[in-house]
Design goal:
heterodimer; A: mainly alpha; elongated; B: alpha+beta; 4 helices; about 50% helix
Chain lengths: ~300, ~100
């Protein structure tokens, strides 16, 4: 193999791995198929083009998963400022004053609230951006239907009842989706928490504590969003007070005093709209999603505990 | 009854390629070479057809040692029926437009 061919193959593999990471979880088996195709190809010239196409597929599928899971929510979020501005204008408000003060006040409020949340962050913990991403993208980008869960539990129970069933299931959990007996459930197999729970259950660990840990970890993005929302509200008030101070400095200039005073209030309005109109609903949606997922984890834990007895 | 897919030109090309040898399992790259579709177009089509129950996919062990198993594809019975219907419609359209159609 020439150096060029070797490098092409290495790059193609790296690109396909990226495509696999980008694909939504319910398409995980297709990611494995793309990787296997690249590994099995002899055509070095076409490899890179093929791998780049796979990356495009990964992004397109991820985007369409986000739109299908959160598209309506994002549209409603965009509708809120449009409605507020629209009614404000309709009832005689001057949008110009708002828009002039918005960039400065908005930046102060967003950055200040981010700093406040960062102060309380533990080392290695994900921040506000990661929490927003989890809330918008959905933790798993696809939901497991009740029917799929029942089928999975049936298959799991059948497998563990065999001789050395626990070892057999552990072995199949480690296999790629395409070769695993649980390959039809990529949403569960690629969910790190479901996977950890299964591993713990099969090795006889206490599942109650595992479930508690999972619950705590899964709720963290929602808690971060709540903190950020609170910070937005009060940093908005701080921005308004700062605006008042700026306005008072111009008290001898009546032509600009009124504008500065009006602009000062934009900080509080912006903070409140972001906190209660966007961040709070995102946090609530995330928390509801966690509770849905926890009910799935509890069912799996109960099934494993029953079989272990 | 599976949902009828959007019949784009690319989907027709893929159906035609799979219908040439409906009983054979085919690699993605081979299908790409036959149809001229790039991986960025081919995989989404394969995913949709698989979701709609028109195409089956499975893993096939490689004939050479050290090479991992690859994903292979072929039409299901519903897929074959739809592909034949499309091929027939294409022939009818071509005849209606006065084009020469191979026997």
């Amino acid at each position: 193999m020439t150096t060029r061919a070797f490098l092409c193959r290495r790059m193609a593999r790296a690109l396909t791995r990226h495509a696999v990471d980008t694909l939504p979880v319910h398409r995980a088996a297709w990611g494995e198929a793309m990787q296997a195709e690249v590994d099995g190809l002899d055509d070095d010239d076409g490899l890179l083009r093929w791998a780049l196409g796979c990356v495009m597929v990964g992004y397109r599928e991820r985007l369409s998963a986000i739109v299908s899971v959160s598209g309506a929510m994002i549209a409603r979020m965009a509708l809120l400022p449009v409605l507020l501005m629209g009614f404000y204008t309709l009832f005689g408000g001057q949008v110009g004053t708002l828009l002039r003060a918005l960039p400065g006040s908005g930046l102060i409020v967003l950055a200040g609230a981010w700093a406040v949340t960062a102060i309380g962050r533990r080392r290695g913990e994900k921040g506000v951006f990661a929490a927003v991403r989890v809330a918008i993208a959905g933790p798993r980008q696809a939901k497991l239907s009740p029917r799929q869960l029942e089928d999975f539990l049936d298959q799991l129970a059948t497998a563990v009842r065999q001789d050395d069933g626990f070892d057999l299931v552990r072995y199949h959990l480690r296999l790629p989706l395409g070769r695993s007996m649980f390959g039809a459930y990529p949403i569960l197999m690629r969910d790190p928490h479901a996977y950890a729970l299964l591993q713990a259950g099969l090795t006889g660990k206490l599942l109650v504590s595992v479930l508690e840990d999972v619950h705590k970890e899964r709720l963290r993005p929602s808690q971060i969003l709540h903190s950020y929302g609170d910070a937005l509200t009060w940093v908005g008030l701080v921005a308004t007070l700062m605006g008042f101070i700026k306005a008072l400095e111009a008290i001898n200039h009546p032509e600009s005093f009124g504008h500065l005073l009006a602009g000062a209030l934009v900080g509080a309005v912006f903070g409140l709209v972001c906190a209660k109109g966007i961040i709070r609903p995102l946090a609530d949606i995330t928390a509801r999603g966690v509770e849905d997922d926890m009910s799935i984890y509890r069912r799996i834990a109960a099934a494993l505990a029953a079989e272990a007895r | 009854m599976p949902r009828r897919p959007n019949i784009s030109r690319q989907t027709r090309l893929l159906f035609a390629a799979l219908l040439e040898r409906p009983m054979d399992w085919r690699y993605g790259y081979d299908l790409s070479k036959v149809t001229g579709l790039k991986s960025g177009t081919l995989y989404p089509l394969l995913m949709r057809l698989n979701d709609q129950g028109l195409m089956a996919a499975r893993w096939e062990e490689a004939s050479r040692p050290g090479v991992p198993p690859r994903h292979v594809y072929r039409l299901t019975a519903d897929g074959v029926a739809l592909a034949r219907e499309l091929a027939l419609a294409d022939v009818t359209d071509a005849k209606a437009n006065g084009e020469k159609v191979p026997a």
